[in-house]
Amino acid sequence: MIALSGPRLVAASAVLVTAMSAFILLAEGTGEAGVREVVRATARTSAVFFCAAFGAAALQRLFPGPVTMWMRRNRRYLGLSLAASHTVHLLAVGALVAPDPAGFVAERGGFASQVPALFAVAMLVALAVTSNDVSVRRLGERRWRMLHLSAGYVVFVAFLVSFSGRVLTEGVYAVFTALLLATLGLRAAAAVSVRRARRVVAAETP
Predict the structure, then answer these.
(1) At what angle do helices 115-129 and 141-164 cross, to 10 degrees?
(2) Residues whose CB is less than 8 angstroms from the CB of residue 54 and which lie 6 or more positions away in sequence, other chains included
(3) What pTM does this model have?
(4) What is the DSSP string of 118-177?
(5) 3-state DSSP helix/strand/coil percent for the chain, to nearest 5?
(6) Burial category of 157 from C-beta neighbours within 10 Å (exposed 0-12, middle 13-18, buried 19 and up)
């Protein structure tokens, strides 16, 4: 992946996630069980792409090197890879919903219980459609950064709540919950590092 950058990274990510989903359907069948497995798998790939994009700047700040520099330089495209992965995820969810929308919603506690997830999806869409230089110019860099920061934390909370709620029944989600928390910790540590560096510069300035 490090050899890939920019739009080629997004295309490669989309192909890999699609191929993974096709393999799951071949192995598990195209019935409900197979589609549910695709939903679970693509949620996890989306979380990996999210953590890579959300933690890229912090990693580069704390652990400078070729890999973290590549992540920082391609943060936008890691985010768009997240969007590609989650598009496949939402298509799989749609395949589950289509036969019986009312039953699907009732199984999950009613429509009101789905509002936070729908809001997180809306924020993810906002992140994807504004991940370009034109949006930065039109919104202004300050507003653009505020949008991406706030939307990023909404998506973070959505992943964390969803995955942590499955830890006791499916142990694999403990790994992804830990990954999300580690990403948050890296961002906090990087913020502390930036503040310390600014204080040192201020103290040394005549």
Answers:
(1) 140
(2) 152, 156, 183, 187
(3) 0.92
(4) HHHHHHHHHHHHT-SHHHHHHH-HHHHHHHHHHHHHHHHHHHHHHHHTTTTT-THHHHHH
(5) 85, 0, 15
(6) middle
Percent of the chain with pLDDT over 70: 96
**What residue spans define the domains of the chain?**
7-204
pLDDT average, residue stretch 38-62: 97
Place of tokens 């959505």: 158
Residue 41 neighbours by CB distance under 10 Å: 19
Length of the chain: 206
Instruction: Find out whether 167 and 178 touch, Cβ atoms under 8 Å.
Output: no
Q: Dig out the tokens for 129 from the structure.
A: 């459609």
Torsional sign, CA 59, 64, 70, 76: positive
**Which residue shows structure tokens 């029944």?**
169
**In degrees rounded to 5, what are phi and psi of residue 6?**
60, -145
